[in-house]
Design a protein that fits this description.
35% of the residues lie in helices and 14% in strands. With 465 residues, it is an alpha/beta fold. The longest helix is centred in the C-terminal third of the chain and has 19 residues.
Length: 465
């Protein structure tokens, strides 16, 4: 990086005054044969200040602050010349005119100072300069812009939960959580297939997000205060995509029908989840003794449960349902009626990037709002035509929602028709649910709380205004 300086030498007793500017040699820090001292040694070692003497009184070239005032930039290097008793201080990082005011008083006050006081006092403005004149931090680029630039959305999923995120024998990812990733990719990039999936265990997921390994997490993750807060995991949650609760699965032939029947029994659970705390809270409140064995992945937990290493398996009810669907004899296992906790499962992004969090959040809202209005993957193009030149062309609310008028998408950094792109790719929320958890699937879970508010459920999208 070039450093701005004046081709000038400061007066010294050996010269008796400043040379003419056209004949002035280069500054001492670049003069051949000059004595060079740099870095913190030059600033903090008092011996480097021994050669300082006040500029001759009455010299119009004094003090050196006049040049410093014009070229105030910051560096931690102090150059001294072996042939001159004067010194030069180049500042090279950022303009900082306040430094001139900080330095001016001590420099002019050096005339009457003893040498020891001079050394101590003269270094103060230099240290102040280092602390106060740092370059301004670079503006942080939102992940939204990085995803656009990369042309790919990196999405963290489980990959082991049928109905939510599962890898087929052909290597394709499928499930409700997967379709959320695809919807975001369609809205941001225009192509639902521009997704790179990363399979993560419960223990790995937050580190992968905070380290930047993934752009978003769509992996049956419970929204909690500790995970949402800056003092905790520092996540920014999108709307809940599945309202769940922790349950317990046992073998039907065990005769166990409630928690009391699990007194002194062993539970299998997954590590890195809220499961352990929830189970402990409930069993302690009920005064029921139990043992717990934890596993890293769902496959490990299922294997231990089926092998008889534990009497019961506990996890989110949706997860237990997915696991049971993959058993050779699913009817030989039952999920107890007791619900141990509330488990609102939601996608998440890293906190501190509101533009990216807003984009993901409103894509999910768009899927839910589309269901409320009867807009589906099958009729989305007809809806656009109707709102453009048909019977709905006077319906301002529909036109805004579909991006035909207004700039709602642009406010998020997305195309104005981002909802159209998402619904065209994966359907509305109800279609996604039915495709992966509906009555015609092996992982069927009645919608219940996961229905739209118009049908008595909890899903409710804010207005697109």
């Amino acid at each position: 990086m070039k450093r701005a300086y004046r081709n000038r030498v400061w007066p010294s007793p050996s010269r008796g005054g400043p040379p003419h500017p056209t004949t002035a040699p280069p500054p001492p820090w670049i003069r051949p044969g000059g004595h060079r001292i740099g870095g913190l040694d030059a600033l903090l070692n008092p011996t480097t200040m021994e050669g300082l003497e006040p500029t001759p009184a009455g010299s119009k070239d004094s003090p050196w602050l006049s040049s410093l005032y014009d070229h105030i930039t910051l560096t931690v290097a102090l150059g001294l010349s072996s042939t001159s008793r004067s010194y030069t201080l180049p500042w090279s990082l950022a303009p900082c005119s306040i430094l001139a005011l900080v330095c001016k008083l001590p420099i002019k006050s050096m005339h009457a100072m003893p040498s020891k006081s001079l050394k101590r006092f003269a270094i103060m403005p230099l240290l102040l300069a280092l602390a106060s004149c740092a370059t301004a931090p670079e503006e942080k680029v939102s992940l939204l812009e990085q995803v656009k630039s990369n042309g790919e959305l990196r999405c963290g999923v489980s990959g082991r939960l049928p109905g939510f995120s599962f890898v087929t024998s052909e290597g394709a990812y499928t499930g409700l959580d997967v379709d959320i990733c695809r919807a975001v990719a369609a809205a941001v990039l225009g192509n639902p297939d521009d997704v790179a999936y990363t399979q993560l265990t419960a223990a790995q997921r937050f580190t992968a997000l905070s380290s930047g390994e993934i752009d978003m997490l769509s992996r049956n993750t419970t929204q909690t205060l500790s995970r949402d807060s800056a003092g905790g995991n520092g996540l920014a949650f999108a709307p809940v995509v599945f309202y769940d609760g922790q349950g317990v699965m046992v073998r039907k032939d065990s005769g166990i029908t409630n928690l009391e029947g699990l007194e002194d029994k062993t539970f299998c659970a997954r590590a890195g989840t809220t499961t352990e705390r929830n189970l402990n809270d409930v069993m302690q409140a009920e005064g029921i003794a139990y043992e717990l064995v934890k596993f890293e992945t769902p496959d490990q937990m299922e294997g231990a449960y089926l092998a008889g290493r534990c009497d019961a398996a506990t996890a989110d009810r949706s997860s237990l349902n997915s696991s049971r669907a993959g058993f050779e004899a699913p009817d030989e296992h039952v999920i107890l009626d007791e619900v141990l906790s509330k488990e609102p499962l939601a996608p998440a992004t890293v906190d501190g990037d509101s533009q990216w969090a807003d984009a993901v959040r409103w894509v999910v809202h768009g899927l839910m709002a589309a269901e409320e209005q009867g807009i589906t993957q099958g009729n989305i193009d007809d809806q656009v035509t109707s709102a453009t030149s048909g019977e709905n062309q006077e319906n301002a609310a529909i036109r805004r929602f579909l991006g035909i008028e207004g700039d709602l998408g642009a406010k998020l950094g997305l195309p104005n028709d981002f909802v159209v792109q998402a619904v065209r790719a994966v359907g509305n929320y109800g279609e996604i649910y039915d495709r992966h958890l509906g009555p015609d699937t092996p992982t069927f879970i009645p919608r219940g709380l996961n229905d739209s508010y118009v049908n008595g459920g909890l899903h409710y999208a804010p207005p697109f205004n």
